[in-house]
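Notebook entry, structure prediction.
Reason for the run: the old model in the group folder had no record of what sequence produced it. Starting over properly, with the input documented here first.
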Amino acid sequence: MNEAIGFGFIVMGIAFDFFGCLGLVRFPDVYNRLHSSIKCVTLGTSSILFGLFLIKGFSAGGVIALLCILFLVLTAPVSAHVLARSAHKFGTKLCKGSVCDKYAEDKDALS
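New structure, fully documented this time:
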């Protein structure tokens, strides 16, 4: 039973990774692509690792998978924020269809 659920999580993770990669190709600017890739890493890869944990159990491989999930969940959003903030400070423009620019609003409020 655990193996079937584990394979389900692995398939779901592969689907997230696929659609995240598709977003990297299809989205118009750096910020949308970054959002897509971080969702891909956080949800897709974590689902694959959780599926591996369900299959392996509390063996060495399963515990390492849980530790990798913890590391990904803690570091991927922070790195995405740093990359987006750096791109904005460098002057990378948003696409024409973007509705708001919160970084520019914060910058204007501080000035």
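Summary: Residues 2-110 form one domain.
The old model has been moved to the deprecated folder.
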